[in-house]
């Protein structure tokens, strides 16, 4: 059965190099390649002895360190003193590695800060926000906003005039209509019309309800006293009111009417 081990201490070759540099307490801008390369190769060899799977990036970094070491061991070409100012000494083979290490260290520190912030935030417990709408103070709208004192005085005067008109008490006078007087009026009308009139001629649009009722009562009273007769010439024809012979109305007869 194959057993795999994961080294949590180093997440990659750059992480291992930073660990070796910090352990050796050397300047990252002046890396002792020989010393760091030997320590790095010892770590890779240890992983091989433990039969651990080595990522390809670790092997690539090992080859890079050996290449830098070999370049530093090669002798530099002689430089003529007259041309020394015109020619640069050339780029240090360690510069590219240093830039990569500095960039990795910067992101590693940022990742550590984010991890600490995550751990600190995980200790806090929150709850959903409550609905505080019922507790919000409602803004009171001013009903007289935009009105001056003079406008309010005018409105108050209008209200007083309107209330004064409502307090007016109207006196209603009741018109008393006598059946006795209506009988006399009908008798005079029959006398002027040669003792015969039509029922429809007694009612016009100007008569009130009381006058119509009194007229009916007067006709019924005359028929009761047998002073008039009412008849029709045909179905739905107008009613004819006619005075009987000798059917005059005296004062003593009308005096007995108590309407």
Describe this structure in words.
There is one protein chain. It is rod-shaped and about 175 Å long. The chain is built from eight helices and three strands; from the N terminus they run ααααααβαββα. It has 259 residues and is mostly helical. It has helices at residues 13-24, 33-49, 56-73, 95-122, 149-166, 179-192, 209-224, 251-254, and strands at 196-198, 228-231, 240-243. The chain is 49% helix and 4% strand. The termini are far apart. The longest helix has 28 residues, at 95-122. Among the domains are: 13-75 and 87-122, no CATH class; 179-254, Arc Repressor Mutant, subunit A (Orthogonal Bundle), CATH 1.10.10. Helix 2 (33-49) packs antiparallel against helix 3 and helix 6 (179-192) crosses helix 7. A three-stranded antiparallel sheet has the order 1-3-2, with helices on one face.
Give the low-confidence spans: 1-8, 83-88
Portion of residues in beta strands equals under 5%
End-to-end Cα distance, whole Å, is: 134 Å
Number of strands: 3
Tell me, rounded to a whole number, the average pLDDT: 77
Helix content: 40-55%
Name the strands of the widest sheet in spatial order: 1-3-2
Oligomer: single chain
Order of helices and strands: HHHHHHEHEEH
* Main structural class: mainly alpha
What is the CA-atom radius of gyration, in angstroms? 65 Å
Secondary structure tally, helices: 8
Describe the sheet with the most strands.
3 strands, antiparallel
What is the 3D shape?
rod-shaped
